[in-house]
Amino acid sequence: MTAGPLAGQPGSSxxxxxxxxxxxxRARLLETVLGTYLGEPARSLDVGSADGPSVGWMAHGGQxxxxxxxxxxxxPGEGVCGSATALPFRDDAFEVVAAFDVVEHCAxxxxxxxxxxxxxxxxxxxxxxxxx
Length: 132
Hints:
Blueprint lengths: L20 H18 L4 E5 L4 H4 L7 E6 L10 E3 L12 E7 L8 H10 L1 E10 L3
Parallel strand pairs: 1-2, 1-4, 2-3, 4-5
């Protein structure tokens, strides 16, 4: 790993080495498998978005809200620091909610899933991944 401004901080190692082959491949895999479900939502939520290199393909013309426990990977003034188990958003707020390799890190996985569904608008799309 290359030492950088985020070295020694919590959060995804992809922030410290975004050009590592696995992060590039993972982004392509996520886009290939889930990209057709993204569509062009007016509002989307990316939970665990401090893994920026893997979710760049989700950029679109609508409002994209990013959320992570760790502010290091969030864009100042755009990202929200928060937890997947207590999302700080109203019910039915997003047409797309994404959480890639997030739920398995939550002590209460059922609560995290319930929160993701709570903020998802009726007929919306929940995009998830977990490690193999």
